[in-house]
Amino acid sequence: VTARDGPAVAVLGATGYIGQQFVRLLAEHPQFPLPVLVGGPRAKGRTLQEVWQLPEPPPANLAAADVGPRSPAQLAASGVRLAFSALPSGTAALTERELSRRGVAVFSNAADLRGTAGVPLLVPEVNGQLLRHLPRRNGGRGLIVNNPNCSATGLAIALRPLLGILRIREVHVATYQALSGAGYPGVPSLAITDNVLPYIPEEEEKLASETRYLLGQGRRTPPTPWKVPVWANCARVATRDGHLEAVTIRAEAGPSRSRILAAWREFHPLDGFELPTAPLRPIELREEVDRPQPLRDRWAGAPARARGMAVSVGRVRWEPPMLRFFVLSHNAIRGGAGGSVLNAEWAKALDRLPL
Ligand SMILES: NC(=O)c1ccc[n+]([C@@H]2O[C@H](COP(=O)([O-])OP(=O)(O)OC[C@H]3O[C@@H](n4cnc5c(N)ncnc54)[C@H](OP(=O)(O)O)[C@@H]3O)[C@@H](O)[C@H]2O)c1
């Protein structure tokens, strides 16, 4: 394969849970060509079909694709200019930096480079402006963009429209996080059946610090964090997909309940950019007394390409100075592969991609 006719896009970690979500989203993408799929050493000689774990069948146009390992040098030499990374944390940094050195833009889910200077942690609806301030020519290096922790993503989207109307003093959040957040095969079945695990390593720290990063200020990467404290309690529960979060905010008495609901309903900062994976309404408000629920609301988002990209907000109670609500977001789509694909579409819209 030569650089001219080789693949322009790659999925790294294509054998894993997030990797397979990338494959679904990129199998028919209106802006990006079909990706080459890259697995770890154990995937040598195997096809996508053989490693597939999601309930729906693999995309027909990629089912027979090889998912064996390929080095950054091989990928760059074969023409790859854009890589989506679903590599395990701890092993991702080396590969991602090596690709960037070779001029490949990297959109990553792994935590390794989060918070590094020059590597934005991005949710376009929340802090999309950060990308505009990065140097356009970076010594020939490819851009590296991370998406934040999956539970921070949902919380930051729900909080963003409130900043203009509420003077928030502190945020408390308790999570009910799905099993798929731990990847495949994830938590042992005997540890979680008939159980709730009130500890997810490093999750509370990430949820607090990344939410404050996303709502932070300034043109630098990393920005000056949001000054409001975020207190998190994180638990793993036996749902498949979708992180539910109970949020309690102490704010100064201010707007009416209907004004708060309107701020969520009218939040659509990406309108007009025509990003294929952006949901028309990033926040879907549920008025029923018992929503949102992971089973019923995890796939919120329209049009069809954006299913799983909207967060659902419900059970809103405003008893000044306390605001309480639940927010639900699909950890593997909005908080994972879909978030990265949207980041790449946003970078393309801002003319920051090498393809
Ligand atoms: N799950 C979520 O909801 C979620 C959300 C946001 C972010 N993330 C992050 O996304 C990343 C992937 O998570 P996941 O849940 O998809 O984990 P996962 O299911 O364990 O998938 C990781 C995959 O990467 C493969 N791999 C290992 N070394 C590799 C290499 N050198 N080159 C290519 N592939 C390699 C692994 O293959 P082998 O098993 O054969 O080693 C595995 O299939 C992690 O960094 C995670 O923290 C996950």
Strand content: 15-25%
Largest sheet: 6 strands, mixed
Question: What is the count of DSSP helices, taking H or I runs of 4+ residues?
Answer: 12
Count the strands? 11
Query: What is the terminal-to-terminal distance?
Result: 18 Å
Helical content class = 25-40%
Calculate Rg over CA atoms.
20 Å
What layout of secondary structure does this protein have?
Blueprint: E1 9-12, H1 17-26, E2 36-38, H2 48-51, H3 72-77, E3 82-85, H4 92-101, E4 105-108, H5 124-127, H6 129-132, E5 144-146, H7 150-159, E6 168-177, H8 189-192, H9 203-214, E7 230-236, E8 243-251, H10 257-265, E9 283-286, H11 294-297, E10 311-319, E11 322-329, H12 337-349
Parallel strand pairs: 1-2, 1-3, 3-4, 4-5, 6-7, 9-10
Antiparallel strand pairs: 6-8, 8-11, 10-11
Helix pairs in contact: 7-9
Bound molecules: NADP nicotinamide-adenine-dinucleotide phosphate.
NADP nicotinamide-adenine-dinucleotide phosphate binds next to α1.
